[in-house]
Write a structure and sequence with these properties.
mainly alpha; 125 residues; 5 helices; elongated
Length: 125
């Protein structure tokens, strides 16, 4: 998975489809994602660091649909693996951390791209 560039895990076609031409909807959706995602990533990070598997699984579960909405199937699938491992309790923490770090790296790169897209869209309003 390490050889996947961030752009390969970001497809906004679903967002554009449901926005139905509304630039304002796109900007608001991206804004919400930009606010919530770092908080959820941080919650997962903290929970994993503290080996609080239940909390990590819950935060991963909350973040998954957002990733799907923004066309990040690779990150979403990896997050699902993390969620399942955490819900089963006492997972291989080094493997879970490695997977989470991959997700975090991809998603953080996508956050930068989304900031740029949001700025471009705001200029159209």
């Amino acid at each position: 998975m390490a050889d996947i560039s961030p752009g390969q895990d970001l497809d906004l076609s679903f967002l554009y489809e449901i926005a139905d031409g509304s630039t304002e909807f796109i900007v608001e959706s991206i804004e919400m994602f930009l606010q919530q995602t770092p908080q959820l990533l941080s919650a997962i990070d903290d929970a994993l660091a503290g080996k609080d598997w239940a909390a990590a699984g819950q935060a991963a579960h909350k973040l998954k649909p957002n990733l799907g909405f923004f066309g990040m199937p690779i990150s979403q699938e990896t997050l699902q693996e993390i969620e399942i491992a955490c819900k089963e309790g006492a997972p291989d923490s080094s493997e879970v951390m490695e997977k989470f770090n991959q997700v975090k790296q991809l998603v953080n790169a996508n956050l930068i791209t989304l900031q740029q897209i949001k700025a471009e869209k705001e200029a159209e309003l």
